[in-house]
Write a structure and sequence with these properties.
Elements lengths: L7 H12 L6 E2 L20 H4 L2 H4 L11 E6 L4 E8 L12 E2 L9 E2 L2 E7 L5 E9 L5 H10 L20 E12 L2 E10 L5 E11 L13 E5 L5 E7 L6 E6 L3 E5 L5 H4 L12 H8 L10 E2 L1 E10 L4 E9 L13 H19 L6 H16 L1 E7 H7 L21 E7 L11 H11 L4 H10 L27 H16 L4 H22 L31 E3 L1 H22 L5 H19 L8 E2 L4 E2 L1 E4 L5 E4 L4 H8 L1 E4 L1 H6 L1 H13 L21 E4 L3 H11 L6 E2 L2 E2 L5 H4 L2 E5 L2 E5 L23 H18 L4 E3 L7 E3 H14 L16 H5 L1 H4 L7 E2 L6 E2 L5 H4 L2 H8 L1 H4 L15 H12 L9
Antiparallel strand pairs: 1-2, 2-3, 3-10, 4-5, 6-7, 7-8, 8-9, 9-17, 10-16, 11-12, 11-15, 12-13, 13-17, 14-16, 18-19, 20-23, 21-22, 23-24, 25-26, 27-28, 29-30, 31-32, 33-34
Length: 924
């Protein structure tokens, strides 16, 4: 990691973390979709999408949060700023992003807009967002109708397919935020007519208070009101008992509109409104010309500055606003230093990204890295939910003996009111615990402190279940996410050491105690028979398996999951890693290291059990789930998927200094293997004391011979190895689908490169064959761990059948390069991520801004699923950053990956650094 301290932005981070200066108080914390969420669902059947629809969103006050275009708010979402637009033709005011509900699309829910997160610093001192707004009527009905008529075998019908961007008939709407001080926000909106004819546009920068006063509490209603400002300006005063006074200054004397952020009951339920001024007043005023819809007294809880613009062909207009704690009487001209300050913040953002971007990256790579991290930072959202209160509002009281069927009733302890990194603020505007762990790996590149805070959040009493379970996601907090939190924790700690020379041991101790609780939950709840083989349901892999693994099996019985068992072995390794770090300061943790090291042995013995009923298939050289039948029989479910690759991910190198810190653990392991020598057959030889390169040991489920066999499949381009990374299902199953019959019904798994044709989980849970970043990154990590043990001596053919031999560092580098290739311009000047879309590929205004999808077509690299899941897909940034350490350290020719091109020690150190949790000395 390049030591980038010393930039202005790093100074702000130090002020925020060291002195409590609230540089992070204001940020992009609005959701992009509050409608259709579980929080807002008060239906009797749990159908959140149909209970609170996009059509209702403009008229119904939200209960738990707010949404908006380019949304910006304080960290408790009390006062919110966003944009509204109208092109003179739309049937509704454009106040929020449109997309399909779960039942409307042929591949589930999906946002149907074009927008980009172009820039953000970690303190949000500078941010830039771009939206493409059609000049013709937005095709709401067409998008719903066409997608609803398509089958799962057809592509989604996207906004660019409707023709609304033909002849460039659209506006570019760019929003920039810059902080003059932590409480003084400059806002610049630049509108550009990309078309060949003049076109009108109405722009409504909107300020509103989240509705906290309608739910039976004694809450003071805040107030927005027009105030006098100097000539050439309009101003709105905001009064809130917690925030204190604020003012929104609007240049150019726009018309100020006011209403209340209250439900239009008359439209929603047919009952009289309590006030004539309701949430959708601006829609009524602008679109329908109802001037009596807004408050003539010019006050309320929602306000907008209405700009009516006519833009010539190719012309632009700039609107300047300032949301500030500086009162009108204390500033002669609110915009006197506006452009200078905004330009300075943009320059400081450039400086920050130059400092963290390795110089060896091309301009295209640097842009992809920056936009990936910007998207990650824009995806923060204030998440608010008091489950006990939510349940009581549904008439469910957990302390009363009953059998409630309502969602999440067992999570009554949970109170969430924090800024959290979201997977995607439209498609997944709720946190997902295992997604968040991967976010924190990427966040560590730009804001290590925020990443640590996010990791601790999930382990706090208001999140972690009393049983020890980490919450999954709001549709079902009790679902089971893979246990990757411990890995993200030790990664974060080691990043601290690498950057600052020491890590936060107090953080590590706090996390370790809670992670022990979580580990025990897994052992007690997901090891059905106490045999150290684990279940857990879908474990993040959705419908990649034969059955819905979260539901009762059609055969009866249960599954012994190769992935669930491997995840737990990896959990053990990470807990040993953490305990070793703590034992260096407190020798009592040596006992805990021994506990988890022994548990790793039990799990290794279970997953590597020999015989016809074990998970390892000697004939195929691969791991499979085992179906245990009620009559005592068993069968392997021989689907070649990432389920069978996960055992190689449970691999961690142990440095000599680490072993020295835990002498008790080493004695326990030695004694255990003497007493139970059969355990030695279940682990890598290095775990028995046979040392590898530089006297390293290794904890791994997969020995060298099995590793060769698994990699021969994984690196086979007719199986797992795509031009764009590792597929989640072997391409072998395209021509040889796996079929299983139960109770007269066939259950079938066939390779599909993008969306699945199975609706097993509904929504966008359609993984069968695509590439997705989380497991690719874990595979890369594992290869680097193996490389740390074997060095240059262990070679494999890559790709299989090519005759080209690589060490495991080079294999990891090859996979990383293929993943990066998804986003980069190829030799034809096209980005694979945009597939066959002519507009996205051929128009540089579209092509040269990058979207970071949920997963990617296994054959051509095209983006699939959520289009702004920059959470875990932002992992492309640290991959670029960390592999490019070779250049930062003045290694030789980047293109030559041979052993002679890069000194072995450099490769080893970079391997340790990228792996993140290897025990070697940190790079500075």
């Amino acid at each position: 990691m390049i030591d980038a301290r010393g930039t202005a932005e790093h100074g702000r981070l130090e002020e925020a973390d060291g002195s409590g200066v609230p540089w992070r108080k204001w940020g992009p914390y609005l959701s992009e979709r509050q409608w259709g969420t579980v929080r807002e669902d008060y239906s009797s059947n749990g159908d959140a999408w149909h209970y609170f629809t996009h059509d209702h969103a403009r008229s119904r006050a939200y209960r738990w949060g707010e949404d908006g275009l380019a949304g910006f708010s304080d960290d408790h979402q009390r006062l919110c700023f966003s944009l509204a637009l109208w092109n003179g033709k739309d049937e509704i005011l454009k106040e929020r992003l449109f997309g399909l509900a779960n039942s409307e699309g042929n591949h589930g829910e999906d946002v149907k807009e074009i927008y980009y997160y172009l820039d953000s610093t970690p303190t949000h001192s500078y941010m830039r967002w771009l939206y493409r707004y059609p000049q013709s009527a937005f095709p709401y009905f067409e998008l719903v109708h066409v997608n609803g008529g398509r089958s799962r075998h057809e592509l989604e019908y996207e906004l660019v397919d409707t023709g609304v961007f033909d002849a460039d008939r659209y506006f570019d709407v760019q929003v920039e935020y810059a902080k003059a001080t932590p409480e003084d926000i400059l806002i610049r909106v630049t509108l550009t007519n990309r078309g060949r004819e003049a076109a009108p546009i109405h722009v409504l920068p909107t300020l509103l208070f989240r509705n906290t006063w309608s739910w039976g509490d004694e809450v003071l209603r805040p107030r927005l009101a027009r105030v006098e400002a100097r000539r050439g300006l309009s101003a709105i005063a905001a009064e809130h008992d917690e925030l204190g006074p604020r003012w929104l200054y609007c240049e150019g004397r726009p018309e100020l509109l006011f209403t209340e952020n209250d439900t239009n009951d008359e439209r929603i339920s047919g009952t009289p409104n309590r006030s004539p001024f309701v949430k959708d007043a601006f829609h009524a005023f602008v679109v329908h010309g109802k001037h009596d819809a807004v408050n003539p007294a010019r006050d309320g809880t929602k306000a907008a500055a209405l700009y009516r613009l006519d833009l010539p062909a190719g012309g632009s207009a700039v609107l300047r606003l300032r949301l500030s704690d500086v009162a009108p009487g204390d500033v002669a001209d609110p915009f006197a230093a506006f452009d200078r300050t905004l330009s300075a913040r943009k320059a400081e953002a450039d400086e920050f990204y130059r400092a963290i971007t390795p110089p060896s990256l091309s301009a295209d790579q640097a842009n992809v890295m920056r936009e990936a991290l910007a998207g990650l930072l824009w995806s923060k959202q204030y998440y608010n939910l008091d489950v006990d209160r939510w349940l009581s509002e549904h008439g469910v009281f957990p302390w009363v003996i009953q059998a409630p069927s309502i969602r999440n009733h067992e999570w009554f302890h949970m109170v969430n009111h924090d800024v959290i990194s979201m997977p995607d603020k439209w498609e997944y505007p709720w946190y997902a615990a295992w997604d968040l762990a991967f976010h924190c790996i990427a966040l560590a590149s730009v804001d290590l402190s925020f990443a640590q805070q996010q990791l601790e959040l999930m382990l706090q009493q208001m999140y972690l279940h009393p049983s020890g379970q980490i919450p999954a996601y709001e549709w079902n907090f009790s679902d089971v996410n893979p246990p990757v939190h411990a890995w993200a924790t030790i990664f974060n700690y080691r990043m601290q050491v690498a950057l600052h020379g020491e890590g936060d041991l107090a953080f590590l101790r706090r996390a370790f105690g809670k992670l022990v609780t979580n580990f025990l939950w897994w052992v007690n709840r997901k090891d059905r028979h106490g045999k150290n083989v684990f279940e857990g349901g879908f474990l993040g892999l959705d419908n990649i398996g034969v059955f819905d693994r979260s539901a009762p099996l059609p055969t009866g019985g249960h599954l012994e999951q190769a992935d669930g068992t491997a995840w737990m072995a990896f959990f053990c390794q990470c807990m040993v890693d953490i305990a070793v770090e703590l034992a260096a300061d407190d020798e009592s943790y040596d006992d805990m290291a021994a506990k988890f090291a022994e548990h790793f042995l039990w799990i290794a013995a279970a997953i590597n059990r020999e015989g016809a009923d074990g998970m390892w298939d000697e004939e195929d050289g691969f791991y499979y789930d085992v179906l245990r039948l009620p009559d005592g029989g068993s069968t392997r479910l021989k689907v070649r998927s990432v389920i069978g690759l996960l055992p190689l991910c449970a691999t961690t190198v142990l440095e000599p200094w680490q072993r020295e810190h835990v002498p008790h653990t080493m004695r326990v392991l030695s004694e255990r293997l003497k007493r139970m020598p059969h355990l030695s057959r279940s682990i890598h030889p290095g775990g028995r004391g046979e040392l590898g390169h530089d006297a390293r040991a290794i904890a791994s489920l997969v020995n060298g011979e099995r590793l060769q066999r698994i990699l021969s499949r994984m690196l086979d381009e007719t199986e797992f190895l795509s031009p764009f990374g590792i597929r989640s299902l072997s391409r072998f199953h395209a021509d040889h689908p796996y079929s299983f019959w139960a109770e007269g019904q066939e259950y079938r798994v066939g390779y599909l490169p993008a969306d699945s044709d199975s609706g097993m989980f509904g929504g966008n849970s359609n993984w069968r064959g695509p590439i997705w970043f989380p497991l690719n990154v874990l595979i890369i990590r594992a290869l680097l761990q193996y490389y740390g043990y074997y060095g240059d001596e262990f070679l494999v053919e890559c790709p299989t059948g090519s005759g080209r031999r690589m060490n495991l560092f080079e294999v990891a580098r090859e996979i990383s390069d293929r993943l990066q290739r998804i986003f980069l311009l190829d030799e034809r000047g096209r980005r694979p991520v945009y597939g066959g879309s002519a507009k996205l590929q051929d128009d540089s205004l579209f092509r040269d801004h990058v979207l970071f999808y949920e997963y990617f077509n296994g054959d051509n690299g095209a983006g699939v699923g959520a289009s702004h899941q920059t959470g875990w897909t932002a992992l492309v940034a640290p991959l670029m950053q960390l592999f490019a350490e070779l250049d930062a350290r003045k290694a030789l020719d980047l293109g030559n990956l041979g052993a002679k091109a890069h000194p072995p020690r450099v490769r080893e150190e970079v391997a340790q650094r990228i792996a993140g949790d290897a025990g070697g000395a940190p790079l500075h």
